Amino acid sequence: MTVSTKQTGKACSVPGGLAASGIVSMAVTMGTSIVIAHFLNCEKITWEQAGYWIMGMLFAASFLGGKTAIMAMKHQRILVSFMAGLLYWGILLCITALFFGGDFSAVWVTAGIILAGCGSAALITGSKGKKNRKKVRSTYR
User: Fold this and answer.
1) Residue 36 to residue 24: CA distance in whole angstroms
2) Is 86 within the bounds of a domain?
3) Residues sharing a CB contact under 8 Å with residue 57, sequence separation 6 or more, in sequence order
4) pTM
């Protein structure tokens, strides 16, 4: 049996990787929210355009959060990316329940955008190729 993986010892644990992805996702969300609010205040965008900016913000935040989780944990990139997206969606649901009185309007649209962002991160973030991998032979047959 041959295993073709390069073992570096730099992989993070699941809670650590998810915590990092949650921090990155929320930092991107808060940063782009400030930019959108500034653009609305300066009247560079209209209220109708703000919805598209928010959808882009959700996609970018979930993409970068999923990419952070994948790069931190190093294995099972699709599962890890979707776990990061689920965490981000849960954080957004908690914020909605806390600040907006539980008005869960368009929550499934948000879930779809986050799913698209995490799925894109899982598909785009790949391995570095086979040139750096070392073959390990098993002693049993």
Assistant:
1) 18
2) yes
3) 28, 29, 32, 33, 36
4) 0.79
Q: Structure tokens of 46?
A: 């209209």
18 inside domain:
yes
> Is residue 37, in this structure, part of any structural domain at all?
yes
- Between CA 131 and CA 127 the distance in angstroms is 11
pLDDT tens for the 141 residues of the chain, in order: 455 656 666 777 888 889 999 999 999 999 999 999 999 999 999 999 999 999 999 999 999 999 999 988 888 888 999 999 999 999 999 998 888 877 788 889 999 999 999 999 999 986 555 555 566 666 765
Written as six digits, the tokens of 92 are 């957004």
Amino acid occupying residue 77: R
Domains in the chain, number: 1
